[in-house]
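Residues and backbone
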Amino acid sequence: MKKTGIFIVAGIFVGWILLSLAYLVPTGRIRTHIKESLPLLESEGENPYLIEEYKGSSLDNYTDEIMLGTSCFQSEKPFYKAALMAERENTDEEEPLQWLKCDLLNEGEGYTVSYSRYWHGYLIFLKPLLYFLNYSQIRKLNSVVFGLTLLLLAIAFAKRKMWFGIYAEILTLLTLFPGSIPFSLQFSACFYIAAFAELGLLWKYEKLEEKGWLGFYFCGIGMMTSYLDFLTYPVVTIGIPVIVFVVLCPKKWFDCIKEVIIYGISWACGYVGMWIGKWVLGTLVVGENLFTDAVGSVKLRTSGSTDYMDLSIVDVVGRNMDVLNNAYGKMITIAGLVVVAIALVVTVVLRKTIDYKKVSLLLMLSLLPMVWYCGTANHSYIHYWYTFRDLSVTVLAVTMIPEMLVQSMKAEKKE
């Protein structure tokens, strides 16, 4: 536990140093490139749909505009303090595009606000990128990186001959609605964290297990999620890699579930510890109490109500699932359940023993999004149009059952 604490504290200071360096990037060219992007953002609107009337295809230009505004703001504070405050221009208008115009084009009366409860770690990438590219060009670059990441995942699964794993990954990706991710900076962080966490396990699981580093690995994933994400669909950054771990783990059910619990706690320690570390560091360095705003926001987002209604778990889960209650979502469901059913039947016909305990573990992990929705009812109900992506964990857990059966058969042959 002591080593984990040192690991988290070290991560907090590394995160601060990286952000401080990002704030040394001159804002002149950044502001020019964001000005070039204003016509595109104005023409698209705050939440354009890639597929008409399909809520899951919505982009989040609203939040991307906040990210752009934070990137180009010229703070009067020293760079190492500015990195902890995440200031931007604001106006009495509700649209972030108007805030950008006020800052860049001097349209309207503006004032400075701080969004300090988040780390805004994405700035270590976004500021240097905006120095060279505009928003449209960053989208294109993100699309290329997105495609290459998928290729690496396919190679990693193929290297282990996990063909059912590739199928499960495809259905999981479809649940995320992949078309939106490269075009929304807001949606990119959790995807890349989960994807590279998977890659790490697929390439180096045995070494991580042998060295006893998996606890630090999952703690680091939690820290990266807190550092880079805007509270979008963080469940995927623990759910997806831990499901891959269960499939790869050759141990018996009891040992496996014990490790799942340990790694889940490790992720939570990294996630919460990194977040609290930001508030402590900011309060000490800047001299302003960051806890008041942060704790207030946490209480709001974890409450069981909105301004106009009390929420039940049925309300929250139902609203998120409703995004997939269409032909697209039903196609994913049928494609997944059919393959799982066939795999179970074939296993029985071949007189192979089904490891029902490990199957039950995957089914338990499929409930992770529901647990998250219970804990963040307010946030998950209001922002259902992107928090529905947490359900990709459910899809992966269920559709990985055939691959787990194959891995169990391979383990039996070795014995």
Notes: The CA atoms of residues 7 and 216 lie 8 Å apart. The beta strands are 87-90, 111-114.
